[in-house]
Write a structure and sequence with these properties.
The chain is of the alpha/beta class and 267 residues long. The chain has eight helices and twelve strands. The radius of gyration is 33 Å and the shape is elongated.
């Protein structure tokens, strides 16, 4: 036998050590279970405390809190966050998304993403607000600051749906494309008062509430808008008290537009 070879001898743990380890493990398990029981007991008595709202709120804070119908006497642990989310989205039409979470010890956190009325349309004598994605939000009574949208042959105005309009699917798609192109133009988007796409061969927009821009058909929308914006920047048009008509319908072939000033109301 090689004398340099070391032989390690492992002794089997005694019965006492085994019992000791089992006792420690069992004690730790009991402590853990006791903590869980205490936690559950404490949570069952916890009431709703602070309600925190995160995000741009298109409503008054109190309106959101009232819509949740939460009370300080409600049990915090039993608050159904999914139900709260659905309730807020159902009752507050200008909320695009809602996420409700609970934060220990008794806080309710509501994260909201708003949506705004980008357009309004007249359907059977009633005004309806539409968001940027063309979904109907609700009936609207105060249209100040909202762009009027005139669509062809509107047939429906159902909440949370894109209105049905146009004589065919092709007309609908082409009209939506035109609306998007006009709305996406940064130079004119915020200045729009009206967009009339009821006739794709005779598109008309109103800028700054007093300039009627005649665009003709849907060919080269970007070029026509650029021409109109350039004309709006000239001194004679800017100084026109009552606005006027800017015709850029022939821009595609002539590369310029014409302006006819309005004379104002008769005295």
């Amino acid at each position: 036998m090689d004398i340099n070879k070391k032989i390690r001898i492992f002794k089997k743990p005694s019965l006492f050590i085994k019992v000791k380890y089992l006792f420690v493990a069992f004690t730790a398990l009991l402590v853990s279970m006791a903590l869980v029981v205490v936690m559950i007991t404490v949570m069952s008595f916890m009431k709703v405390g602070e309600i925190e709202i995160i995000g741009t709120n298109p409503y008054d804070r109190l309106e959101i809190i009232q819509a949740t119908q939460l009370k300080s006497s409600d049990n915090w642990s039993r608050v159904d966050t999914r139900e709260l989310e659905e309730k807020l989205l159902r009752e507050k039409k200008y909320l695009k998304s809602v996420e409700v979470t609970k934060k220990f010890p008794n806080k309710i956190v509501i994260r909201i993403e708003p949506r705004f009325a980008r357009w309004y349309m007249d359907f059977e004598g009633v005004y309806y607000a539409l968001d940027a994605d063309m979904y109907v939000i609700e009936e609207i009574y105060n249209v100040k600051g909202v762009t009027k949208l005139v669509l062809p042959n509107v047939r429906t105005a159902l909440s949370e749906e894109v209105p049905e309009f146009g004589q065919s699917e092709t007309e609908t798609k082409e009209t939506l494309k035109i609306i998007h192109e006009i709305s996406a133009n940064a130079a004119v988007s915020s200045r729009l008062s009206e967009v009339d796409v009821s006739d794709r061969t005779n598109i008309r927009i109103v800028v700054d509430e007093k300039y009627d821009v005649i665009m003709g058909n849907s060919k080269d929308i970007a070029g026509k808008l650029a021409c109109a914006i350039e004309m709006l920047g000239t001194e004679n048009i800017k100084n026109s008290e009552y606005g006027g008509e800017i015709n850029v319908s022939a821009y595609s072939t002539l590369s310029y537009g014409t302006f006819r000033a309005y004379s104002g109301p008769e005295k």
